[in-house]
Amino acid sequence: MDLSVNYMGLKLKHPLMVGASPLVEDLDKVKKLEDAGASAVVMNSLFEEQILAEEDAKFRHEQDAVVSAEAASYFPDVDDFLMSLDKYLNQIAQIKKSTSLPVIASLNGVSVGGWTKYAKLSQEAGADALELNVYYLPTSPAETGREVENRTLEILKSIKDSVSIPVSVKLSPFISALPNYAHLLAEAGADGLVLFNRFYQPSINIEELEVASVIHFSDSSELLLRLRWLAILDATLPKMSFAATGGIHTAEGAIQAIMAGADALQMVSAVIRVGPSAIKSVYQGMVEWMEKHEYTSVDNMRGSMNLSSCPDASAFERANYMRVLRSWRP
Amino acid sequence: MNDAKNKSFITLDGNEAAASVAYRLSETIAIYPITPSSPMAEWADEWSSQNKKNVWQTVPRLVEMQSEGGAAGAVHGMLMSGTFSTTFTASQGLLLMIPNMYKIAGEMLPFCMHVTARTLATHALSIFGDHSDVMACRQTGFAMLASASVQEAHDMACVAHAATLQSRIPFMHFFDGFRTSHEASKIETISDEQILQMVDEKYVEAFRKLALTPDQPRIRGTAQNPDTFFQAREACNPYYDALPSIVQETMDRFAKVTGRKYRLFDYFGDPKATRVIIVMGSGGEAVQEAVNWLNAKGEKVGVLMVRLFRPFSIKDLVSALPVTTRSIAVLDRTKEPGAAGEPLYQDVLTALAETKSEGLSKFECEPVVVGGRYGLSSKEFTPAMVKGVYDNLAKDKPANHFTIGIVDDVSHTSLPFDTELDIEADDVTRAVFFGLGSDGTVGANKNSIKIIGEETDFYAQGYFVYDSKKSGAITISHLRFGPRPIQSTYLIRRANFVAVHSWEFFDKYDVVDYTKEGAVLLLNSTYPTEKVWEHFSVEVQDAIIKKKLKVFVIDAYKVAKETGMGGRINTIMQTCFFAISGVLPRDEAIAQIKKAIEKTYSKKGADIVQKNFAAVDQTLAALNELPVPAKATSTRHMPPIVSEDAPEFVKRVTAVMLANKGDLLPVSAFPVDGTWPLSTTRWEKRNIALEIPTWDSSICIQCNKCVLVCPHAAIRAKFYEPSLLANAPSTYKSVDFRSTEVKGMKFTIQVAPEDCTGCTLCAQVCPAKDKTNPRHKALDMVSQAPLRDAEKENYTYFLNLPNPDRTKLKFEVKSSQFLEPLFEYSGACAGCGETPYIKLLTQMLGDRLYVANATGCSSIYGGNLPTTPYSTDACGRGPAWSNSLFEDNAEFGYGQRFAVDKLAEYSRELLARLAPQVGDEIVSAILNADQGSEAGIAAQRARVQALKEKLKGVKANEAAKLLLLADYLVDKSVWVIGGDGWAYDIGYGGLDHVMSLGSNVNILVLDTEVYSNTGGQASKSTPMGAAAKFAAAGKRFSKKDLAMMAISYGSVYVAKIAFGAKDSQTVKAFEEAASYPGTSLIIAFSHCIAHGYSLEKGLDQQKLAVESGYWPLFRYDPRRHGTSEAPFKLDSAAPKIPLSKYIANEMRFRVLEKTNPKQAAEMQASAQEFINNQYRFYEKMAEIKTGNQDAAQAAQS
Fold first, then answer.
1. B855, B1008, B1013, B1079: which is the annotated catalytic residue?
2. B145, B186, B224, B1051: which could join B229 in a potential S-S bond, CB 3.0 to 4.6 Å?
3. Pair B310, B246 in one domain
């Protein structure tokens, strides 16, 4: 049976990879992920603001200490202070050195210069591909959707000009006309689209009147949103690679995502909760299901249920909404 | 040998210069921090942690000990066992090394220590330079070699290390604290190869053979008896006799290797001089400058610089003096009250007398010799003063035992000198910068010196003068650039360039006074250039016109903001300096600044480099010249330094010191014994806060937490009768007081607008959020300037409202904060984590409080003049504060308790004896009084007052005696306060002993987990995984559990507290400790800038420290022994967040994470495990009830 897939030109032994997460920060854990059968890893996102804030903090720390006759400083003067960027690039190199996993760097920039710089550095550090994590939260009423989209397109183009490895864009579902935007991304050179980013949603502490940050892991229910958009986009962008992320917890879900059009499947919450064995069990489930249903390769299933191939396209479209509402009537 | 091409120049300070040689010639190093020597040890620690090798290609290893005494002991062992060792120290630290110095010298162990000569504490502590410490060692048998400059500190270190090997006599190499140790200067360096040429391998071999080893056993350190000790002690004489020639030979060899020549006594000046000054140390450089200037004017003067002070070579001294010498002034930088004269003077006299009596005198005419003192505690010593000394020598009968540089109007020892004389050469650029302690001015100036020193042929010198305050502090940088090595070892009086980085300085200091005629004055101003002139006071305008200054203006804050530099203006002001001072061609200078920026920051981030570049570029466009009008137009005068209402002493003495003109005060201005008045910070209205809290009375819940956490007593609460509001200022705020006990009162939270430092802790702690707009709280930070005048009036009004009756206030968080603090407006860092504890203590016990304060931050913000935050109440009572030393504080405080107890006992005895005269009733009432409460204290005070009245009418002799001592019949509370460096390390032995004595002494440890005051060196309280100086690679072991050690006595009350995490427990612990009749120990978590985060987050970090179990809270009360309660009460819950959450915010932990992530992770895991185990252990402790539990249960029921 052939489970191998081609994700943006990367030959993966199967579609199940580990999505962007802090799991990659520990080399031992990465090795365990490899042992559990992961086909690739996506690095945690490198945030440009974080790097700038860190540089700034270090600068301020050195500059702003209140000096006195007795204390010209308060810390030993360390030259080889590893900044997050160094650590990040070093970790890519380490993973490449000590495992055979393909490594996809995940970047989140705020400026064109920042994005391209980190993209180049990631490639130099050994990354096999890049995933651009467009985690942007518009808060200004003056900013239009097109402006936000154009900015990403511009960044993508400049990154494509500066690196030779494939580049994917990790999208948010909150886009007015996703198919149009997906086509623009394709024109700008995107090799893959990753659906979807999961935003951390803060909650409110009503006792302290404070905004509280909470980490919320995904579950299988989140997959449905991905399935629909995979099916829609895959149908019109046949050359584009797609990865599903958010809600891949079971073999059934994995197979659904592949049938909807995914080339690769990124798992995070399940791996964090259950451990590396989560990958193995989904993998085994897929193999069993494919054997039982006599699929010989993932390729056979891929996109088989997308908007243009599925028996009832309207089920993915607007009609589905009315139908579901009607069916729910008590 | 010497080749100009091989010369290598570098810009560094005296400490680094000396340490770089000491490190390269050592294998083992024992250290302990003490200003101003600490940087030498810090360099050595950093080099060792970077595995930098010595000249023998092995990495020197280094250990921090618990005190200088410990370091000396360790070094002694290191030498005894055959390693090349060194140590670095100064002042009190050097005194602690003396016992081992005798041993090391007596055992003839080759060794060189490096000392930054510093004042010994007498009537006051001083961190600055003089020779009182090194002079206290001249009897130890150590050779003493003095350096006068940064270059010499480098060179003599090499000479001393080489000579000790050959001679077997240990060396103390010393140079002047701050003046040399902290002066940045361009020097020529000594390479490893050159060092190796100085060290003869045969002596290295001989030293190895001296090592004590069981392979060739010998014993050392025997005890000898009257029959032999004397002869054996004389056996070393030949070695001392040989030493001067060995040192001279070593210097000659050094000259061959490096080209730099030195003599044991170096003479400079006219070979036929008639008047000669003999001097040692950096002062000699200023004398040389004056000598050149005077001789150029046709005078015949000279100076003899003493390099080898011990052994004192009479022959070499005499031969170095010109035969024409007719009068000699020997200058000593020390004072020996009661001596026939200061040490160098006496040695010179002895030398000349011996030479004469042996018939060997060479002089044409036997010279007159006088001695004088100069430069104590880094007092300025200038060519003008030198001229004053030569003028004295020209007299028929020169004054002897004189002082120079001060006005002594009491004993009339001081020589006159021309205060206006300035002999600095025109080709030396002199620049003075007035910066803020936290704006990076000093760093930028050090950078400028490096640029000019290392990128041009110019010589460069930098010296930095700091404030005694840690918040809102001023720094004054003195920079010189010139074509010759710079010998001006004194501050710049008349600069070509003066930069004023903060507008406020114009009204506080006479900054224009630092300019010479035609100089450039650069100022950072938020006023547009065309408005600047009208904002000057008339005095400043007059001075600018009179001195024909060229004035340049920049809004550096605006440029900083626009270029993403935040509030950091240092690069901008540095660029201005290069652009207009003319020290380098403008374009070249700008290119060099950028090069330096790239070098400094490229590793730290391209963005930072770009921001700095942008700042440099935009600076030039934003810099404007101010047209200076022909006439002064301002109607505004410089404000007085202190208010007219200040006490006479404050106006006459303190105000002068505050204006930075303390040098002008004569001897008669000062108390003879270092005793100073309280309540003086209140007169220096510093106005350093950009933002202050404003109070919204409508949402305030009146919890008083803001008052409790304020480190500066700059926000206060009162409740009072509504009728008192009748004359309140129009903006004065008040609200109905919420209280179950007191009804119908008004309540006010009031900020002291001019004393607030803007630290924001009050606003941070404020729990009262506006429900419809939670961003707004009962305290919000707002701009100070618009509120200043109104709030000033409100604060004065507030202070004049009566304080609530102390006897009616409970001691818990809210009500304790109505008690008047007797510790206010200290110069501690804005947001300090220590001072809230001290303030609370003074609120509770200030009117009957003794404080014995260990040297450290708390003694500096507590007692570094000009002012003290300790203050008095309306009755004139207040804390009796004193600082003895660093190491002895527990013993010192114990001694005070012992004395107070004795005086109380004697008073009671006298009282009992006087019963027939004053009446049994009052005697019995006083002797049996319960003073366990405020009411009890008040009642006793009333009785004592009544007693005093009666005693006045009693004729008995003993009545007069009791009248003098009657106040001791009122209980006193003795507190011993200090930091962890004292309590865990240097003072631990004494602390432990005091805890064993059971006396009613209260010990407050302000635990910052690091030596904060001296710049962040590790202590035994420093936690595992934290990086600190002397633990650059991260502290490897857990901090010691001082609390558990104290608890092991079973008789000591012990509490571990953190006011930011649980204020109620803090207040409770203070109350219990005060009431406990035995010894108590409070270990108080004190957030600190040395932890590496903005102090406005101090309270949050305290919470995280407690929630993570990093800092568990508990109270151990021996009074609970044998009761139904466990003596040990755990006051914090089991760890509920991981340690990582706490430490992630603190640079001290992140340093390790960033430099050695693997080790950091391992240490963090160990630390987490330690915390978990510790909590389990404490939990068990909290279950243990002691004594006869059946009886306890019965008693309870």
1. B1013
2. B224
3. no
Answer yes or no: is B669 within a domain: no
Both B245 and B290 in one domain: the answer is no
Q: Give yes or no: residues B366 and B270 share one domain.
A: yes
Query: Cα distance from A257 to chain B (closest Cα, Å)?
Result: 37
**Known catalytic residue at B1013:** yes
pLDDT digits (tens, 9 = 90+) for B437-476: 878 889 899 989 998 988 889 999 999 999 888 888 899 9
Q: Same domain, yes or no, for B388 and B298?
A: yes
**How many separate helices (H) and strands (E) can be counted in chain A?**
12, 12
pLDDT at position A59 is 67
Rounded Cα–Cα distance for residues B784 and B472 (Å): 15
CATH code of the domain covering residue B361 = 3.40.50.920
| Residue B318 forms part of a structural domain | yes
Domain boundary among B404, B421, B449: B404
B524 is catalytic: no
The first and second tokens of residue B666, run together, are 């004569």
User: A73, B1016: Cβ pair inside 8 Å?
Assistant: yes
pLDDT attached to residue A324: 58
Q: Which pair of tokens denotes residue B590? A: 């700008």
- Residue B1083 sits in a domain whose CATH number is 3.40.50.970
Residue whose structure tokens are 């502090």: B473
The overall average pLDDT reported for chain B is 95
pLDDT digits (tens, 9 = 90+) for A31-84: 999 999 999 999 998 888 877 777 777 666 665 566 789 988 888 877 666 677
Q: Is B68 a catalytic residue?
A: yes
Domain end marker among B561, B592, B626: B626
Mutation for testing the B interface, residue in A55, A60, A63, A88 having most B CBs under 10 Å: A63
Residue A330 predicted with pLDDT over 70: no
Q: Do B127 and A77 touch (CB under 8 A)?
A: no
ipTM of the assembly? 0.88
| B35 tagged catalytic | yes
| Number of continuous H segments (helices) and E segments (strands) in chain B | 44, 38
DSSP structure string for A240-253: -EEEEES---SHHH
CA-based nearest distance B191→chain A, Å: 23
If one compares B260 and B607, the residue with the highest pLDDT of the two is: B260
Note whether B372 and B269 are same-domain residues. yes
Domains and CATH numbers, chain A: 5-327 (3.20.20.70)
**Predicted pLDDT of residue A65:** 65
C-beta separation of B986 from B66 below 8 A? yes
Mean pLDDT confidence for B1101-1116? 98
Q: Which one of the listed residues B11, B42, B87, B118 is annotated catalytic?
A: B118
Residue B348 counted as domain residue: yes
State pLDDT tens for residues B253-275: 999 999 999 999 999 999 999 99
- Three-state SS string over B792-842 comes to HHHHHHHHHCCCCCHHHCCCCHHHHCCCCCCECCCCCCCCCCCHHHHHHHH
The fraction of chain B above a pLDDT of 90, given in percent, is 90
Residues B46 and B194 in one domain: yes
From chain A, pick out residues whose CB is under 8 angstroms from the CB of B443.
Answer: 62-63
Q: What range defines the domain where residue B296 resides? A: 265-404
- Measured in angstroms, the CA of B1019 and the nearest CA of chain A are apart by 13
Domains contained in chain B, number: 5
pLDDT at B1190: 83
Query: Are residues B509 and B361 part of one domain?
Result: no
Is B419 domain-assigned? no
User: Phi/psi at A101 (nearest 5 deg)?
Assistant: -75, 135
Check whether residue B243 and residue B288 sit in a common domain: no
Q: Give B909-969 as a DSSP string.
A: HHHHHTHHHH-HHHHHHHHT---SSHHHHHHHHHHHHHHHHHHHT--SHHHHHHHHHGGGG
Query: Is A78 within 8 Å of B442 when comparing Cβ atoms?
Result: no
Q: Which residue of A has its CA nearest to B464?
A: A69
Read off the tokens for A53.
């804030």
- The answer to whether the CB atoms of A73 and B1032 lie below 8 A apart is no
Amino acid B48: pLDDT: 94
Catalytic residue among B42, B64, B68, B152: B68
